[in-house]
Amino acid sequence: MVINTITHRKKLIVTLILVCVGVSACGFKAPLYYPTPAQRAELEAKEKRIQARKEARRAQERAEREARKAQAEKEAQQASEHTRQSDSNSN
């Protein structure tokens, strides 16, 4: 009977430990405090700066793509003009 009680306690303790670990290991990890209005404003300002940098980077990449495309079109046009001129000179 004593052995049965010890086994039962061990199972209960192991089960409780597993439940605690399982519950603490899953889900959304949130801060343990609510930010003050000043901290919240600082976080929002930081997020806005991050978004502004991302937008600036996207705009720069877009401008670079357009510049490369315009340069390629200009080179293609010059090549076709050069081809036409060399064809007309050879005739």
Automatic annotation (TrEMBL):
Assigned keywords, A-Z: Cell outer membrane, Lipoprotein, Membrane, Palmitate, Signal
Residue ranges, annotated region (Disordered): 45-91
InterPro entries membership: LptM_cons
Keyword Metal-binding listed: no
Keyword NAD: no
Localisation per UniProt entry: Cell outer membrane
Ranges of compositional bias, category Basic and acidic residues: 45-85
Topology in the lipid bilayer: Lipid-anchor
Protein name from the UniProt record: Lipoprotein
Source taxonomy: Bacteria, Pseudomonadati, Pseudomonadota, Betaproteobacteria, Burkholderiales
